[in-house]
Amino acid sequence: MLPKVTPTERVVARLDRVTHGYRSVSGRLNPVLRDLSLELHEGERVALVGSNGAGKTTLLKLLTGLIVPRSGEVEIEGHNTRDHSAVRMADRVAYLYQHPQEMFLQDSLRKDVGMFPIGRKLPGAAETVEQVLAQVRLSEHAEADGRSLSGGQQRRGSLAIGLAMRPHLLLLDEPTSSLDISSRDDMIATLAALSGSLRCAVVASHDMQLVASWATRVIVLDQGQVLADLSPRDLFSQPDIVARARLVPPQITQLGTALGLRPAPLDVEEFVARCTPHDAPSQTQPPADRTAADLADARHTPAVVSG
Ligand SMILES: Nc1ncnc2c1ncn2[C@@H]1O[C@H](COP(=O)(O)OP(=O)(O)O)[C@@H](O)[C@H]1O
Ligand SMILES: [Mg+2]
Question: Segment Disordered: which positions (predicted)?
Answer without folding.
Answer: 277-307
